[in-house]
């Protein structure tokens, strides 16, 4: 029998994959709708305006840091405990749990970077109907209404946000299971107040049998030993018509209303060939939503790692523009309002209300809770070449040589699952990758790096060291019966380490030590795939919810699993170098806080124009919730791109944070030089543009690490008062100074880009042509490039000497692009460090402000304590929108003055200063006379 | 400034040493454009700059020509003299990037990279390999001439044979009829009948071309030669002497004598079959043609029956012995008959078919095949001088860690797991697919077994000059698109005389 099973394994796996793939689109039947998810169905059936919850004001306790108050469900008399905190930085935290739960309910650990520091709350007034608390700054108040319970956050006379205003707060209390054949009558009695709930009571009893204590989906059964435990809360956002965030969905940047379909779902899933423009769950989940109008930006962070659904409705969604105008003219309109409702399967309500008021404030507020983007090694911002799979060492070598032969730079070459010995991670195929160190040394000799995949599913094989260790240490996730959970994945039968355990993560991290991970070297980095976790034969291709992680069910921690995998892997990389080197880890699954551990990509997309297009809103949405290091597979993973699509994708990817080409095993090869010399040249050009801009990218990532601002930004973040930008997701900003409008239509002859900013100008980076802001501009395009603009008023450093990898360019000189605004000023920054260690934490960096005003360009130190020296110098300054000077002089730190040669192109008003030559890390001024 | 007085340029073969001054990175051929002290005009003529801006680490010329020795221009190139080896241009982005590109180390003059001058060593190695290649090309080219000659001869013969076979078939049928009468007349004793049976059988196959009256128990050199041709449908270089060698140095042997010969061949065959797995099924042409014995390999029965494209069966290899009989080549088959004699129990091969209708069918199919196959063969494009003709109906194998790859030129490519499992077609003969100036350098095999969610498998075979005919490597660069490297004398070009093959003399 054993033999049979063993022999059948590959067949079964193949069959499964086949089943998952029947057609070229997601098989929706494999994934639940809200109706098929019992708790979502139950919760969504609740009607607004019938809240059974009442605040028991007499239980209120107010200390310096928090307010507590009991709530009671008048239907079943179950009491809840409300905790309210004022956090530093204009954040209000609302926690609701059962006052006396049967057993503890899960509270998400390890996501907040610390217990958030509080600020004092004070009582302003109190009566029988409620209390008013001061939130300190800005005349902000919280009004707690008693019957029904409701919270309103006010500023002056404006309501910023209301909680339970529609009465959809729901908290399924933990309960004892009645006898196996649940007696409806008994259940009903416990629910209390039979009079009031006679009718709905009956319905609920039906559901008890359906989905409260057991639930099946397709052939999978969820035993639900702890019964129903869902939570739900509604939020009203007066004056708001635009909400964003809650990735990951393949949908527009601006979230849609969900009244006529399913809610947006947050449940990390390995979705085979995902479909675009729908609210289905994907690989990662960040339960953070941003709400924006021209006056204010706010955010809601729903800290819950269980399966979650988010409903969005709007009172203006159905209205036509004409209808809205009519309302406005007649002055009879109700205020536009967006209502949002969060539903989670288990855990508690723990919500952080980030009150802005600006987009940047919200980013800072969120960063203060969950941390900022990990500062990646510079090379990780360069170009990555991946394929499932580079077949063997020879293949790797010849692809590497191909890049040199065609003079295309790259920094990382990637190995997918086939590099392992039978999908046993941390090993190498003994034939194809017999001498990995030799291979890595060859890559290193070119100053390049490699990434090898390490997935969390572990082959069940008693000859596999990793498996044996995990099993003997009891580190595997357990199934509901207490045995090691086993599922099918790439290696066949696999176990899943319990990454929620700190001791498991520490052990995992130790496996990346050079003496543990045989064949690894310091230029080998890691890719965590399939960490939703993907279980080919599990419900919805993931783990059974009744599997257990110690005291908790998988149900409670599901969306957190991927974050933990990447956390442990990144820790391993840090530890292997004794804490010196920055890690680089790519993950597919993620959660709030994943930004701290590396990069994320949008999973298994397809070689289709719409997938190129959706990469923009998908990465923008991630950036809004802290995950800046985002990219989509260039070229598309499934299927084979047309040459035009591939070129356009390179041109787009070159301007997205994580720039990696990837391809499915079954697709023809698509290294950049395989499409004729003309297309090779186009791709070369796109990649080289990326390399020239690496100093700017690096500086943006430093900023993201430092402040939590996204690197790739929607326009509204920088132009929050311009409604024309609110729904734009076919163009974006990098930092605030580069505007990119990719070409995402086949055969496009031109695109219409919106250039924001009433008093701004934008310079085409290729032609230096100047355009005014606040206009829709039609730009003719050829295959040679996509429209990219530099904002007037900015200074962008580039390195124009593109070499075969970013490390080769370390000491190269800079060219400064100074784009003048109508006031003839500009400013920018330059950030330099060693590019790969944590020494920047010890002030070993150069961070300078570059300013142009009154015809003087100068560099001043932004951090006098920082010490780092560079060999890089300024070889050229290009001033866009300049007039011709008669003389240019340079004054360096040592007081020396010298004249600088220059060229002036009168037709484009471009002044080029020739070889001023000052060191990039020192003070200097250049004066135009 | 980066002006560098140039060094001694040692040439690989010459003893001459010359001192040539020019800016760093400029090839000798362009030296005249860089005259010290005089204004420099960009090589594209776009502008003129003072000479001190040449190699001053700032790019002034659009074409990069002012910075031949620095990395300042994105489109510049740097010339390494590489004395002792070949001079080369590298992109100027590789100057001082910490990676040694020029074997003379001149590209890393300011990066701190510890480069070793490896030019002499490289030059030596290159000369050695050039020499080796030249030798191979020379010998290969000679072999190719032979192939061409033989192909020419073979083609004529085949055409003649085509006609001949068609007529002789008729004769044979008559003869069979006659023999049948004899058989019927001599039903007993059994032994006798079997002997006659054997005679008839032998006669059908072996005697027709010599003389109908020859005693068929004799095997002659001429016969062997003839049969090698018939069996293989390619004449190769199976020479009289070689055949004689097979027969122990005489022109003709009788049954008993041949039995001894056969046991030698047989042993040899068996040992070869078990030997080095990378050896081709067929050994190279200039050696004794082993096909005589190879072809009765059980593992790889010769596909004598024209391939039926439509019923491409993946399990072809696992034919049952009954099928196999028809595919076993006539010579080995008949030899076996001779050796084993009538009544001898043969395990799984060479069982003499029962007389009568089966014999007739065998004759029919045999001759049907012969005519069809010769016609088919004549229709192939075997190259400008039919030099690839010798590959026809041959198969070459390469065993990797997982698979046995098999290339049967002009027929098909297949892959079979090393440790059991069915064979997969990687394509059947499609076309010559080399570049226009060298069409016969690449073969394309198409329409192999389909891939899941992918294309049908296909194989590109790259042909390079070699003395031997061998598959040297296989790979699968893209899923289901295979690449095979194959050496054969048939693509060898006439080598240039060795004198003109010295490394480039550009520098002097």
From TrEMBL, chain A:
Residues 1-25 form the signal peptide. Residues 82-311 form the Glycoside hydrolase family 31 N-terminal domain. Residues 374-699 form the Glycoside hydrolase family 31 TIM barrel domain. The lineage of its organism: Eukaryota, Metazoa, Chordata, Craniata, Vertebrata. It is an enzyme of class 3 (hydrolase). GO terms for cellular component: glucosidase II complex; Golgi apparatus. It comes from Sphaeramia orbicularis (orbiculate cardinalfish). Belongs to the glycosyl hydrolase 31 family. Its EC number is 3.2.1.207. It is found in: Endoplasmic reticulum; Golgi apparatus. Transmembrane segments: none annotated. Pfam families: Gal_mutarotas_2 (PF13802), Glyco_hydro_31_2nd (PF01055), Glyco_hydro_31_3rd (PF21365). Pathway: Glycan metabolism; N-glycan metabolism. It catalyses: N(4)-(alpha-D-Glc-(1->3)-alpha-D-Glc-(1->3)-alpha-D-Man-(1->2)-alpha-D-Man-(1->2)-alpha-D-Man-(1->3)-[alpha-D-Man-(1->2)-alpha-D-Man-(1->3)-[alpha-D-Man-(1->2)-alpha-D-Man-(1->6)]-alpha-D-Man-(1->6)]-beta-D-Man-(1->4)-beta-D-GlcNAc-(1->4)-beta-D-GlcNAc)-L-asparaginyl-[protein] + H2O = N(4)-(alpha-D-Glc-(1->3)-alpha-D-Man-(1->2)-alpha-D-Man-(1->2)-alpha-D-Man-(1->3)-[alpha-D-Man-(1->2)-alpha-D-Man-(1->3)-[alpha-D-Man-(1->2)-alpha-D-Man-(1->6)]-alpha-D-Man-(1->6)]-beta-D-Man-(1->4)-beta-D-GlcNAc-(1->4)-beta-D-GlcNAc)-L-asparaginyl-[protein] + beta-D-glucose; N(4)-(alpha-D-Glc-(1->3)-alpha-D-Man-(1->2)-alpha-D-Man-(1->2)-alpha-D-Man-(1->3)-[alpha-D-Man-(1->2)-alpha-D-Man-(1->3)-[alpha-D-Man-(1->2)-alpha-D-Man-(1->6)]-alpha-D-Man-(1->6)]-beta-D-Man-(1->4)-beta-D-GlcNAc-(1->4)-beta-D-GlcNAc)-L-asparaginyl-[protein] + H2O = N(4)-(alpha-D-Man-(1->2)-alpha-D-Man-(1->2)-alpha-D-Man-(1->3)-[alpha-D-Man-(1->2)-alpha-D-Man-(1->3)-[alpha-D-Man-(1->2)-alpha-D-Man-(1->6)]-alpha-D-Man-(1->6)]-beta-D-Man-(1->4)-beta-D-GlcNAc-(1->4)-beta-D-GlcNAc)-L-asparaginyl-[protein] (N-glucan mannose isomer 9A1,2,3B1,2,3) + beta-D-glucose. Residues 179-229 are annotated as: Disordered. Its main location: endoplasmic reticulum. The gene is ganabb. Residues 708-796 form the Glycosyl hydrolase family 31 C-terminal domain. This is Neutral alpha-glucosidase AB. GO terms for biological process: carbohydrate metabolic process; N-glycan processing. Residues 179-191, 215-225 have a biased composition (Basic and acidic residues). Gene3D superfamilies: Glycosidases (3.20.20.80), glycosyl hydrolase (family 31) (2.60.40.1760), Golgi alpha-mannosidase II (2.60.40.1180). InterPro entries: Gal_mutarotase_sf_dom, GH, Glyco_hydro_31_C, Glyco_hydro_31_N_dom, Glyco_hydro_31_TIM, Glyco_hydro_b. One of its GO terms (molecular function) is glucan 1,3-alpha-glucosidase activity. Keywords: Endoplasmic reticulum, Glycoprotein, Glycosidase, Golgi apparatus, Hydrolase, Signal.
TrEMBL record, chain B:
The keyword Translocase does not apply. Keywords: Coiled coil, Disulfide bond, Endoplasmic reticulum, Signal. One of its GO terms (cellular component) is glucosidase II complex. Residues 148-182 form a coiled coil. InterPro entries: Gtb1-like (IPR039794), Man6P_isomerase_rcpt-bd_dom_sf (IPR009011), MRH_dom (IPR044865), PRKCSH (IPR036607), PRKCSH_N (IPR028146). Residues 293-323 have a biased composition (Acidic residues). Residues 393-494 form the MRH domain. Residues 275-327 are annotated as: Disordered. The keyword Membrane does not apply. PANTHER family: GLUCOSIDASE 2 SUBUNIT BETA, N-LINKED OLIGOSACCHARIDE PROCESSING. This is Glucosidase 2 subunit beta. It comes from Sphaeramia orbicularis.
């Amino acid at each position: 029998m054993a033999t049979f099973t063993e022999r059948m394994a590959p067949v079964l796996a193949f069959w499964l994959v086949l089943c998952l793939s029947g057609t070229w689109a997601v098989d929706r039947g494999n994934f639940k709708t809200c109706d098929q998810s019992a708790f979502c169905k139950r919760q969504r059936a609740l009607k607004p305006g019938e809240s059974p919850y009442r605040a028991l004001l007499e239980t209120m306790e107010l200390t310096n840091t928090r307010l507590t108050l009991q709530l009671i469900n008048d239907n079943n008399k179950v009491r809840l405990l409300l905790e309210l905190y004022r956090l530093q930085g204009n954040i209000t935290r609302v926690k609701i749990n059962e006052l006396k739960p049967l057993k503890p309910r899960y509270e998400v650990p390890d996501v907040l970077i610390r217990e958030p520091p509080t600020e004092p709350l004070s009582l302003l007034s109190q009566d029988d109907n409620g209390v008013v608390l001061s939130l300190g700054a800005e005349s902000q108040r919280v009004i707690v209404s008693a019957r029904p319970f409701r919270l309103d956050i006010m500023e002056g006379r404006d309501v910023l946000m209301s909680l339970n205003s529609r009465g959809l707060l729901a908290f399924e209390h933990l309960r004892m299971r009645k006898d196996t054949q649940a007696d409806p009558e008994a259940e009903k009695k416990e629910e209390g107040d039979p009079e009031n709930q006679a009718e709905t009571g009956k319905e609920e009893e039906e559901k008890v049998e359906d989905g409260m204590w057991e639930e099946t989906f397709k052939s999978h059964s969820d035993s639900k030993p702890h019964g129903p435990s869902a939570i739900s809360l509604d939020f009203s956002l007066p004056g708001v018509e635009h909400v964003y965030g809650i990735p990951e969905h393949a949908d527009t940047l601006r979230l849609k209303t969900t009244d006529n379909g399913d809610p947006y779902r947050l449940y990390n899933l390995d979705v085979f060939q995902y479909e675009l423009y729908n609210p289905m769950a994907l690989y990662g989940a960040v339960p953070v939503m941003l709400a924006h109008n021209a006056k204010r930006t706010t955010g809601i962070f729903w800290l819950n790692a269980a399966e979650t659904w988010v409903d969005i409705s709007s009172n203006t969604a159905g209205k036509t523009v004409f209808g809205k105008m009519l309302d406005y003219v007649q002055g009879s309109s109700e205020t536009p309002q967006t209502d949002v409702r969060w539903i989670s399967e288990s855990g508690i309500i723990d919500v952080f209300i980030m009150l802005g008021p600006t987009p940047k404030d919200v980013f800072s507020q969120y960063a203060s809770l969950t941390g900022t983007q990990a500062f990646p090694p510079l090379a990780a911002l360069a170009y990555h070449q991946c394929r499932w799979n580079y077949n063997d060492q020879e293949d790797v070598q010849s692809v590497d040589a191909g890049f040199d032969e065609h003079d295309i730079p790259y920094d990382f070459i990637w190995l997918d699952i086939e590099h392992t010995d039978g999908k046993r991670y941390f090993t190498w195929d003994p034939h194809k990758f017999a001498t990995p160190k030799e291979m890595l040394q060859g890559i290193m000799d070119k100053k390049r790096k490699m990434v090898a995949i390490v997935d969390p599913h572990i082959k069940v094989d008693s000859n596999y060291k990793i498996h044996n260790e995990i099993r003997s240490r009891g580190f595997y996730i357990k199934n509901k019966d207490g045995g090691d959970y086993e599922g099918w994945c790439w290696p066949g039968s696999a176990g899943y380490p319990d990454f929620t355990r700190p001791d498991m993560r520490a052990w995992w991290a130790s496996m990346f030590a050079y003496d543990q991970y045989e064949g690894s070297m310091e230029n080998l980095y890691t890719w965590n795939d399939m960490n939703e976790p993907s279980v080919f034969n599990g419900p919805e291709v993931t783990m059974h919810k009744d599997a257990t992680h110690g005291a908790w069910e998988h149900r409670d921690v599901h969306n957190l699993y991927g974050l933990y995998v990447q956390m442990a892997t990144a820790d391993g990389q840090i530890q292997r170098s004794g804490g010196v080197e920055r890690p680089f880890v790519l993950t597919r699954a993620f959660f709030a806080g994943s930004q701290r551990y590396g990069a994320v990509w949008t999973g298994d997309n397809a070689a289709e124009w719409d997938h190129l297009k959706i990469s923009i809103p998908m990465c923008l949405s991630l950036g809004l919730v802290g995950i800046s290091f985002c990219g989509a597979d260039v070229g598309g993973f499934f299927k084979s791109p047309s040459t035009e699509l591939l070129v356009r994708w390179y041109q787009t990817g070159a301007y997205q944070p994580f720039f990696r080409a990837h391809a499915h095993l079954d697709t023809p090869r698509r290294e950049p030089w395989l499409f004729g010399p003309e297309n090779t040249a186009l791709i070369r050009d796109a990649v080289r543009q990326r390399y020239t801009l690496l100093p700017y990218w690096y500086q943006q990532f430093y900023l993201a690490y430092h402040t939590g601002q996204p690197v790739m930004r929607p326009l509204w973040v920088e132009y929050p008062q311009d409604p024309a930008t609110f729904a734009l997701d076919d163009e974006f900003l990098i930092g605030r100074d580069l505007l990119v409008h990719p070409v995402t239509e086949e055969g496009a002859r031109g695109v219409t880009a919106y250039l924001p900013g009433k008093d701004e100008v934008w310079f085409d980076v290729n032609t230096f042509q100047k355009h005014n802001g606040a206009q829709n501009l039609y730009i003719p395009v050829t295959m040679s490039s996509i429209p990219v603009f530099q904002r007037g008023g900015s200074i962008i450093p580039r390195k124009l000497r593109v070499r075969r990898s970013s490390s080769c360019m370390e000491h190269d000189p800079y060219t400064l692009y100074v784009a003048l605004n109508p006031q003839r000023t500009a400013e920018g920054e330059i950030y330099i460090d060693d590019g790969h260690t944590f020494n920047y934490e010890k002030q070993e960096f150069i961070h300078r402000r570059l300013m142009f005003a009154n015809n003087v360009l100068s560099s001043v130190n932004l951090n006098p304590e920082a010490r780092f020296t560079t060999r890089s110098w300024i070889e050229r300054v290009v001033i866009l929108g300049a007039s011709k000077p008669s003389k240019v002089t340079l004054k360096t730190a040592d007081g020396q003055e010298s004249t600088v040669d220059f060229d002036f192109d009168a037709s484009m008003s471009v002044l080029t200063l020739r070889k001023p030559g000052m060191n990039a890390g020192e003070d200097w001024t250049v004066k135009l006379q | 400034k980066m002006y560098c007085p140039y060094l001694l340029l040692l040439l690989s073969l010459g003893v001459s040493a010359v001192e040539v001054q020019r800016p760093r990175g400029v090839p000798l051929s362009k030296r005249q454009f860089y005259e010290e002290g005089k204004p420099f005009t960009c090589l594209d003529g776009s502008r003129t700059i003072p000479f001190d801006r040449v190699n001053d680490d700032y790019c002034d010329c659009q074409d990069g020509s002012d910075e031949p020795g620095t990395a300042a221009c994105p489109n510049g190139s740097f010339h390494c003299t590489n004395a002792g080896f070949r001079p080369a241009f590298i992109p100027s982005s590789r100057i001082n990037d910490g990676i040694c590109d020029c074997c003379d180390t001149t590209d890393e003059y300011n990066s701190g990279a510890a480069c070793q001058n490896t030019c002499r060593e490289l030059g030596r190695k290159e000369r050695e390999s050039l020499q080796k290649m030249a030798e191979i090309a020379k010998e290969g080219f000679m072999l190719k001439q032979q192939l061409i000659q033989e192909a020419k001869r073979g083609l004529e013969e085949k055409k003649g044979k085509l006609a001949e076979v068609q007529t002789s078939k008729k004769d044979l049928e008559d003869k069979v009829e006659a023999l049948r009468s004899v058989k019927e007349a001599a039903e007993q004793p059994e032994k006798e009948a079997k002997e006659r049976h054997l005679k008839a059988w032998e006669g059908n196959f072996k005697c027709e071309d010599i003389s109908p009256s020859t005693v068929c128990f004799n095997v002659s050199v001429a016969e062997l030669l003839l049969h090698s041709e018939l069996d293989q449908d390619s004449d190769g270089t199976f020479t009289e002497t070689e055949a004689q060698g097979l027969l122990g140095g005489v022109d003709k042997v009788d049954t008993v004598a041949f039995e001894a010969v056969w046991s030698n061949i047989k042993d040899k065959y068996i040992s070869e079959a078990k030997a080095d797995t990378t050896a081709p099924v067929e050994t190279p042409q200039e050696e004794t043609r082993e096909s005589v014995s190879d072809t009765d390999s059980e593992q790889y029965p010769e596909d004598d029956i024209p391939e039926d494209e439509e019923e491409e069966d993946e399990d072809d290899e696992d034919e049952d012995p009954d099928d196999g009989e028809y595919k076993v080549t006539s010579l080995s088959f008949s030899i076996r008959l001779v050796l084993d004699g009538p009544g001898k129990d043969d395990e799984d091969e060479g069982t003499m078919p029962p007389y009568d209708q089966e014999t007739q069918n065998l004759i029919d199919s045999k001759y049907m095949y012969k005519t069809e196959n010769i016609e088919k063969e004549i229709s192939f494009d075997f190259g400008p001088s039919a030099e690839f003709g010798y590959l026809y109906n041959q198969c070459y194998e390469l065993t990797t860690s997982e698979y046995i790859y098999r290339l049967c030129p002009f027929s098909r490519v297949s892959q079979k797991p090393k440790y059991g499992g069915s064979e997969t077609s990687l394509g059947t003969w499609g076309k010559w697919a080399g570049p226009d100036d060298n069409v016969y350098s690449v073969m394309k095999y198409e329409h192999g077994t389909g891939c899941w969610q992918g294309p049908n498998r296909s194989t590109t075979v790259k042909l390079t000059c070699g003395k031997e005919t061998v598959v040297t490597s296989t790979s699968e660069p893209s899923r289901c698109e295979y690449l095979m490297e194959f050496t054969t004398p048939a693509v060898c070009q006439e080598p240039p005389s060795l004198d003109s093959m010295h490394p480039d003399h550009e520098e002097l």
